[in-house]
Write a structure and sequence with these properties.
249 residues, 6 strands, mainly alpha, elongated
Protein backbone atom coordinates (compact mmCIF):
# COMPACT_ATOMS: atom_id res chain seq x y z
CA UNK A 1 0.00 0.00 0.00
CA UNK A 2 1.38 3.25 -1.11
CA UNK A 3 1.50 5.94 1.50
CA UNK A 4 0.17 9.29 0.15
CA UNK A 5 2.55 12.15 0.38
CA UNK A 6 2.37 14.44 3.33
CA UNK A 7 -0.42 17.02 2.97
CA UNK A 8 -2.21 15.07 0.19
CA UNK A 9 -5.91 15.99 -0.06
CA UNK A 10 -7.96 12.91 -1.00
CA UNK A 11 -10.74 15.13 -2.50
CA UNK A 12 -8.31 16.35 -5.13
CA UNK A 13 -8.68 20.01 -4.38
CA UNK A 14 -5.16 20.71 -3.31
CA UNK A 15 -2.33 18.23 -3.50
CA UNK A 16 -0.78 19.73 -0.44
CA UNK A 17 -3.88 20.14 1.71
CA UNK A 18 -3.37 23.85 2.05
CA UNK A 19 -5.82 26.65 1.43
CA UNK A 20 -5.09 28.56 -1.77
CA UNK A 21 -3.91 32.13 -1.42
CA UNK A 22 -6.56 34.84 -1.30
CA UNK A 23 -8.02 35.51 -4.73
CA UNK A 24 -6.90 32.18 -6.37
CA UNK A 25 -9.17 29.29 -7.40
CA UNK A 26 -8.77 25.92 -5.62
CA UNK A 27 -6.90 23.32 -7.57
CA UNK A 28 -9.10 21.30 -9.92
CA UNK A 29 -12.03 23.75 -10.07
CA UNK A 30 -13.10 25.83 -13.04
CA UNK A 31 -12.59 29.55 -12.61
CA UNK A 32 -15.79 31.49 -12.11
CA UNK A 33 -16.67 34.14 -14.67
CA UNK A 34 -17.13 37.57 -13.04
CA UNK A 35 -20.29 39.50 -13.83
CA UNK A 36 -20.15 41.87 -16.83
CA UNK A 37 -18.44 45.12 -16.02
CA UNK A 38 -16.93 43.79 -12.77
CA UNK A 39 -13.62 45.47 -12.01
CA UNK A 40 -13.69 47.39 -15.31
CA UNK A 41 -11.43 50.42 -15.23
CA UNK A 42 -11.93 53.66 -17.16
CA UNK A 43 -10.07 53.61 -20.43
CA UNK A 44 -10.72 49.86 -21.06
CA UNK A 45 -14.19 50.04 -22.58
CA UNK A 46 -15.97 51.89 -19.80
CA UNK A 47 -17.30 55.38 -20.69
CA UNK A 48 -15.25 58.09 -19.07
CA UNK A 49 -16.66 61.22 -17.44
CA UNK A 50 -15.18 64.57 -18.60
CA UNK A 51 -12.68 65.93 -16.15
CA UNK A 52 -14.20 68.36 -13.64
CA UNK A 53 -17.80 67.49 -14.55
CA UNK A 54 -20.18 66.25 -11.83
CA UNK A 55 -20.86 62.52 -11.91
CA UNK A 56 -23.89 61.61 -13.98
CA UNK A 57 -24.12 64.96 -15.78
CA UNK A 58 -24.09 64.76 -19.54
CA UNK A 59 -22.60 67.30 -21.92
CA UNK A 60 -19.24 68.84 -22.62
CA UNK A 61 -17.41 71.82 -21.32
CA UNK A 62 -19.49 74.31 -23.35
CA UNK A 63 -22.86 73.17 -22.06
CA UNK A 64 -24.75 76.21 -20.72
CA UNK A 65 -25.20 76.19 -16.95
CA UNK A 66 -28.75 76.08 -15.57
CA UNK A 67 -30.17 79.18 -13.97
CA UNK A 68 -31.07 79.44 -10.31
CA UNK A 69 -34.74 79.19 -11.22
CA UNK A 70 -34.34 75.79 -12.87
CA UNK A 71 -34.66 76.96 -16.51
CA UNK A 72 -31.91 77.90 -18.88
CA UNK A 73 -30.52 81.41 -19.00
CA UNK A 74 -28.89 80.61 -22.33
CA UNK A 75 -30.69 80.24 -25.65
CA UNK A 76 -29.59 79.71 -29.24
CA UNK A 77 -30.48 82.34 -31.86
CA UNK A 78 -30.20 81.79 -35.62
CA UNK A 79 -27.14 83.47 -37.15
CA UNK A 80 -26.16 84.69 -33.67
CA UNK A 81 -25.27 81.70 -31.51
CA UNK A 82 -25.63 81.44 -27.76
CA UNK A 83 -26.92 84.48 -25.85
CA UNK A 84 -27.67 84.87 -22.15
CA UNK A 85 -31.08 86.23 -21.20
CA UNK A 86 -31.24 89.11 -18.75
CA UNK A 87 -32.63 88.16 -15.37
CA UNK A 88 -35.75 89.79 -14.02
CA UNK A 89 -33.63 91.39 -11.32
CA UNK A 90 -31.49 93.09 -13.95
CA UNK A 91 -34.57 94.27 -15.84
CA UNK A 92 -36.16 95.66 -12.68
CA UNK A 93 -32.92 97.47 -11.80
CA UNK A 94 -32.77 98.96 -15.31
CA UNK A 95 -36.34 100.29 -15.01
CA UNK A 96 -35.65 101.73 -11.59
CA UNK A 97 -32.51 103.50 -12.79
CA UNK A 98 -34.30 104.87 -15.86
CA UNK A 99 -37.12 106.14 -13.67
CA UNK A 100 -34.61 108.03 -11.55
CA UNK A 101 -32.58 109.31 -14.51
CA UNK A 102 -35.68 110.65 -16.26
CA UNK A 103 -37.94 111.24 -13.29
CA UNK A 104 -35.74 113.52 -11.19
CA UNK A 105 -35.06 116.16 -13.89
CA UNK A 106 -38.64 115.83 -15.17
CA UNK A 107 -40.06 116.39 -11.69
CA UNK A 108 -37.97 119.53 -11.26
CA UNK A 109 -39.09 120.79 -14.69
CA UNK A 110 -42.75 120.11 -13.95
CA UNK A 111 -42.52 121.85 -10.59
CA UNK A 112 -41.02 124.98 -12.14
CA UNK A 113 -43.55 124.93 -14.96
CA UNK A 114 -46.45 124.40 -12.59
CA UNK A 115 -45.30 127.19 -10.32
CA UNK A 116 -45.08 129.58 -13.28
CA UNK A 117 -48.54 128.66 -14.53
CA UNK A 118 -50.01 129.01 -11.06
CA UNK A 119 -48.51 132.49 -10.68
CA UNK A 120 -49.89 133.49 -14.08
CA UNK A 121 -53.32 132.17 -13.15
CA UNK A 122 -53.42 134.05 -9.86
CA UNK A 123 -52.25 137.31 -11.42
CA UNK A 124 -54.87 137.09 -14.18
CA UNK A 125 -57.74 137.13 -11.70
CA UNK A 126 -58.75 140.68 -10.74
CA UNK A 127 -61.23 141.79 -8.11
CA UNK A 128 -63.56 144.71 -8.90
CA UNK A 129 -64.49 146.46 -5.60
CA UNK A 130 -67.37 148.37 -7.22
CA UNK A 131 -69.18 145.31 -8.50
CA UNK A 132 -67.71 142.81 -6.04
CA UNK A 133 -66.94 140.45 -8.91
CA UNK A 134 -63.76 138.72 -10.04
CA UNK A 135 -62.62 139.20 -13.61
CA UNK A 136 -60.38 136.86 -15.54
CA UNK A 137 -61.64 133.78 -13.71
CA UNK A 138 -62.76 132.15 -16.97
CA UNK A 139 -59.32 132.58 -18.50
CA UNK A 140 -57.69 131.19 -15.36
CA UNK A 141 -59.92 128.10 -15.48
CA UNK A 142 -59.03 127.54 -19.13
CA UNK A 143 -55.32 127.84 -18.30
CA UNK A 144 -55.67 125.31 -15.50
CA UNK A 145 -57.39 122.81 -17.80
CA UNK A 146 -54.70 123.29 -20.41
CA UNK A 147 -52.08 122.53 -17.78
CA UNK A 148 -53.72 119.17 -17.04
CA UNK A 149 -53.19 118.13 -20.66
CA UNK A 150 -49.77 119.79 -20.99
CA UNK A 151 -48.07 117.80 -18.25
CA UNK A 152 -48.84 114.31 -19.68
CA UNK A 153 -47.80 115.53 -23.12
CA UNK A 154 -44.44 116.71 -21.79
CA UNK A 155 -43.90 113.40 -20.04
CA UNK A 156 -44.73 111.50 -23.23
CA UNK A 157 -42.34 113.57 -25.34
CA UNK A 158 -39.50 113.13 -22.84
CA UNK A 159 -40.06 109.36 -22.62
CA UNK A 160 -40.10 109.02 -26.41
CA UNK A 161 -36.93 111.07 -26.81
CA UNK A 162 -35.20 109.10 -24.09
CA UNK A 163 -36.34 105.50 -24.35
CA UNK A 164 -37.43 105.08 -27.97
CA UNK A 165 -34.45 106.90 -29.47
CA UNK A 166 -31.87 105.08 -27.34
CA UNK A 167 -33.45 101.64 -27.82
CA UNK A 168 -33.71 102.23 -31.58
CA UNK A 169 -30.12 103.38 -32.03
CA UNK A 170 -28.19 101.63 -29.23
CA UNK A 171 -30.45 98.93 -27.82
CA UNK A 172 -29.81 100.38 -24.35
CA UNK A 173 -31.00 103.26 -22.24
CA UNK A 174 -28.62 104.58 -19.60
CA UNK A 175 -30.35 102.48 -16.95
CA UNK A 176 -30.07 99.34 -19.07
CA UNK A 177 -26.41 100.03 -19.74
CA UNK A 178 -25.66 100.34 -16.02
CA UNK A 179 -27.72 97.23 -15.18
CA UNK A 180 -26.00 95.24 -17.93
CA UNK A 181 -28.94 94.50 -20.25
CA UNK A 182 -29.57 95.15 -23.92
CA UNK A 183 -32.56 94.90 -26.28
CA UNK A 184 -31.95 93.04 -29.56
CA UNK A 185 -34.04 91.69 -32.42
CA UNK A 186 -34.86 88.04 -31.84
CA UNK A 187 -34.19 86.92 -35.43
CA UNK A 188 -30.73 88.41 -36.05
CA UNK A 189 -29.43 89.82 -32.74
CA UNK A 190 -29.11 93.39 -34.06
CA UNK A 191 -30.29 96.58 -32.36
CA UNK A 192 -34.07 96.98 -32.76
CA UNK A 193 -34.32 100.06 -34.98
CA UNK A 194 -37.10 102.63 -34.95
CA UNK A 195 -40.09 100.43 -35.83
CA UNK A 196 -39.65 97.82 -33.08
CA UNK A 197 -38.58 100.51 -30.61
CA UNK A 198 -41.79 102.49 -31.17
CA UNK A 199 -43.89 99.30 -31.10
CA UNK A 200 -42.29 98.13 -27.88
CA UNK A 201 -42.83 101.51 -26.22
CA UNK A 202 -46.39 101.85 -27.50
CA UNK A 203 -47.55 98.46 -26.21
CA UNK A 204 -46.06 99.15 -22.81
CA UNK A 205 -47.06 102.76 -22.16
CA UNK A 206 -49.89 103.79 -24.52
CA UNK A 207 -52.62 102.08 -22.44
CA UNK A 208 -51.41 104.09 -19.46
CA UNK A 209 -53.47 107.06 -20.62
CA UNK A 210 -56.63 105.20 -19.57
CA UNK A 211 -57.33 106.02 -15.91
CA UNK A 212 -56.87 103.14 -13.45
CA UNK A 213 -57.10 100.30 -15.98
CA UNK A 214 -54.23 101.73 -18.00
CA UNK A 215 -51.95 101.78 -14.99
CA UNK A 216 -52.89 98.19 -14.20
CA UNK A 217 -52.03 97.13 -17.75
CA UNK A 218 -48.63 98.82 -17.55
CA UNK A 219 -47.91 96.94 -14.32
CA UNK A 220 -48.92 93.62 -15.87
CA UNK A 221 -46.78 94.40 -18.89
CA UNK A 222 -43.79 94.86 -16.60
CA UNK A 223 -44.51 91.47 -15.02
CA UNK A 224 -45.39 89.65 -18.25
CA UNK A 225 -41.87 88.16 -18.77
CA UNK A 226 -42.65 85.94 -15.78
CA UNK A 227 -45.55 84.42 -17.75
CA UNK A 228 -43.61 83.59 -20.92
CA UNK A 229 -44.18 79.86 -21.50
CA UNK A 230 -41.53 79.74 -24.24
CA UNK A 231 -38.73 80.35 -21.77
CA UNK A 232 -37.33 83.50 -23.40
CA UNK A 233 -38.57 85.97 -20.77
CA UNK A 234 -40.34 88.01 -23.42
CA UNK A 235 -42.91 90.47 -22.17
CA UNK A 236 -45.99 91.34 -24.17
CA UNK A 237 -44.15 94.36 -25.56
CA UNK A 238 -41.19 92.15 -26.57
CA UNK A 239 -43.45 89.67 -28.36
CA UNK A 240 -45.11 92.43 -30.38
CA UNK A 241 -41.79 94.06 -31.30
CA UNK A 242 -40.03 90.68 -31.74
CA UNK A 243 -37.24 91.65 -29.37
CA UNK A 244 -35.26 89.96 -26.62
CA UNK A 245 -33.59 91.41 -23.55
CA UNK A 246 -30.15 89.88 -23.04
CA UNK A 247 -27.45 90.29 -20.42
CA UNK A 248 -24.20 92.04 -21.31
CA UNK A 249 -22.46 91.43 -17.99
Amino acid sequence: MTTPPSGFDPQGQNPYGQQPPYGQQPYGQQPQTPPPGFGQQPGYGAPQQPYGQPYGQQGGYNSPPPSAGGGLDYIQLPNVGTVRLASMGQRFLARLLDALIVGIPLTILMFLLGFGLFSSTVSSVQYDPETGAYTGATAAAGLSMGTLFLFPLIILVVEVLYEVSLIATRGQTLGKQIAGVKVIREYDGQIPGWGPAFGRFGVMFAPGIVPCLGGLFVLLCYLSPFFDNVGRRQGWHDKVAKTLVIATK
